[in-house]
């Protein structure tokens, strides 16, 4: 007869085995991906783009090479930090292991892969995007994992970058109100001192 302690030990060993297998399955690296996608980005305006106002037009598709896109099921396009905006920011650090990589944190679009044609998306920069320099990367997935990628920059992430300025949260009306209240407080202070001086006289 199997005791409860033996069942507990067996369950624990089985759980550890499952966790180990799961962890091993999930450890996928960027170097394993094929560079099979082309990605082009056209900003809506030249110069610095403003979050919540400006947009970018992203076009992606399969590279016409010797490979095949038969296994591609889904595409995810993301906004990624350029190296200059990653310096001394561990929360944006590039990691070779895909699950740990923090380069691309903002989703632009995710949709089923359309074989044998280029797709595009015009994306208005969302208001939560921080100030920084960026590029765009697209990942192609099979039924589960990333299998290929493409980006609008070179391997060193030094070309075709664009800069985004985050919203400050300040508006002209707020600045005007702040100025009026500041002036009112100064006037009130002078009136207070004048009345105090009259009382003493």
Automatic annotation (TrEMBL):
This protein's record includes keyword Membrane: yes
This protein's record includes keyword Cell membrane: yes
Keywords from the named record: Cell membrane, Membrane, Nitrate assimilation, Signal, Transmembrane, Transmembrane helix
Regions that span the bilayer: 178-195
GO CC terms: plasma membrane
Top-rank lineage group of the source organism: Eukaryota
Pfam families per the UniProt record, alphabetical: NAR2
GO biological process, one term: nitrate assimilation
Entry's Gene Ontology molecular function annotations: nitrate transmembrane transporter activity
Signal peptide region: 1-23
PANTHER family: HIGH-AFFINITY NITRATE TRANSPORTER 3.1 (PTHR34806:SF1), HIGH-AFFINITY NITRATE TRANSPORTER 3.2 (PTHR34806)
Family: Belongs to the NAR2 family.
Function: Involved in nitrate transport.
Protein name as annotated: High-affinity nitrate transporter
Organism for this UniProt entry: Papaver nudicaule
Lineage: Eukaryota, Viridiplantae, Streptophyta, Embryophyta, Tracheophyta
């Amino acid at each position: 007869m199997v005791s409860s302690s033996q069942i507990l030990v067996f369950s624990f060993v089985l759980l550890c085995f499952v966790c180990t297998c799961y962890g091993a399955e999930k450890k996928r690296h960027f170097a394993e991906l094929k560079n099979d996608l082309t990605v082009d980005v056209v900003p809506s305006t030249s110069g610095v783009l403003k979050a919540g106002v400006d947009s970018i037009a992203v076009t992606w598709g399969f590279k016409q090479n010797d490979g095949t896109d038969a296994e591609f099921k889904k595409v995810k396009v993301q906004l990624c930090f350029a190296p200059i905006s990653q310096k001394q920011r561990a929360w944006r650090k590039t990691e070779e292991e895909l699950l740990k990589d923090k380069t691309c944190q903002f989703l632009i679009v995710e949709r089923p892969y359309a074989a044998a044609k280029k797709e595009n998306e015009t994306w208005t920069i969302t208001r939560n995007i921080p100030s920084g320099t960026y590029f765009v990367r697209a990942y192609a997935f099979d039924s589960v994992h990333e299998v290929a990628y493409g980006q609008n920059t070179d391997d060193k992430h030094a070309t075709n970058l664009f800069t985004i300025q985050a919203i400050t949260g300040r508006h002209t009306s707020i600045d005007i109100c702040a100025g009026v209240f500041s002036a009112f407080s100064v006037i009130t202070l002078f009136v207070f001192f004048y009345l105090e001086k009259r009382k003493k006289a």
